[in-house]
């Protein structure tokens, strides 16, 4: 039987659960950072990414509803995260669509679910399932630690190329700059909630498995973009 880990041990185990499947190492991310993509590839990414992150406030709403009243800090964090996604300043999906339009696609194509790859649908469906069905702390581990906390490292690798090699303006890539900052904060708060609220060995192990699966699901999504939109164009690129 697993023993209750200390917070330091648990934090390290959560971080280790992401390594190996971190999407920073995905071939699509590497090709992006190395300037090997074209704007049409960014457009296809945006058309898919919208259907993963667009419902993020919906995922969080299920987590919020499943969080017992006594976990005030967790409920406050989830509510604030929803607010930032949908109401505070520019709606995050509008910033994503602005980038998509700069890449040559349209709002209509981005919002059309028929334009997402099967692996994108798989990630979206998994997010809904976890948010609705799992204990709130396990769902927070899956979506905030396993997925959202990866974003700053991924976008720090991709964003310089957008400016320096592809010539996008600051306004066109505001989506990325915003998430480098906001998701670093969200990721840390997510870790804090999981470390404090997963207070049994069983919950800790469930959180670790959820984070591990979340990292695999996001990597599956990125690899699906590679195989669907880039394999033929960039087949010679060595995969990470």
Automatic annotation (TrEMBL):
Give one GO molecular function term.
Answer: oxidoreductase activity
- What is the protein named? Aldehyde dehydrogenase
Which organism does this record belong to? Answer: Schinkia azotoformans LMG 9581
Q: Which UniProt keywords apply?
A: Oxidoreductase
Gene3D superfamilies this protein is in?
Heme oxygenase-like (1.20.910.10)
List the transmembrane segments: none
